[in-house]
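Lab notebook: predicted structure, single chain.

Context: the supervisor wants predicted structures on file for every construct in the current expression panel, including those that have not yet been purified. This is the next one on the list. No modifications to the sequence; it matches the entry in the shared construct table.
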Amino acid sequence: MSEQKSELSEWLKFKQLFLDHLLLEQGYSTNTFEAYSRDIEEFINYCHGQGIYHPESVRVDLLFNFVKFLLSLNLTTRTVMRKVSALRSFFKFLVQEGILDNDPAYGLELPHPARTLPDVLSESEAKLLVEAPDISSITGLRDRALLEFMYSTGARVSETINLTLNDIFFETGFVRLYGKGNKERLVPIGDQAAYWLRRYIQDSRAKLLKKASGNYLFLNAKTGAKLTRMGVWKIIRGWAEKVGIGARVHPHILRHSFATHMIEHGADLRSVQEMLGHSDISTTQIYTNISGAHIREIYRRYHPRAFLSQRN
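Prediction complete. Output recorded below exactly as produced.
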């Protein structure tokens, strides 16, 4: 028993060295520091339950079993990822300090978070939303142009608010967007969106202009500066609530709906990837899972033997 207590004090000593390293040398935030402290403590307790009383005795199979144990607790994948990250950092530190010769966590991979399907609007809901603004007002016309533009192009909120007049090419039917990493791409714009953009520029934008406006397209009604992310979100949410779909919307609802509806109408995945500005096609592929429900509905509606007849 005294030997086990001695080994426990060794664990705690190594844990404290690691935590000091995080706080003093790595500059971790208080929240991360406290979370890692709890994570390492939990692992030490698990090891004791398995009869492991020193880091030297830890093998990779023990670590894999610990991850399985964590997953059995119905923790979120992100929580398990953080705990695994804490262990990897802990054992890497022990090797760097010469306490261990080999790192048992070297081959330990982080569990991938489950990729959830994004909410999308039906085509009728998207039509309701983009047509909701009162175009008789200055801001209503701006909002109509904004919503039509986002649904027509699938642009991110950040890309939309940074759009300038020089980025719209009405004569060719394209807009220039600057995505992540300031990567430039040209995206087609539909006739509907182009029409409302012209209306907004001619009849509304000039009345919103102030010193802060610059060449930005979508302007704040009070300051004249470009719209902010929060400003766009408030516009989307406000009109969505007006037509009764407010509970389901999020800032990228029109982007997700754009991609899903394009695929449902036969657009190939590679083209949608380019329009969305995704560097990896697997990111775009998630929309094929959403449109699968639409495909099943079409099948059930039109295939002559989609349903079991009463006579079999």
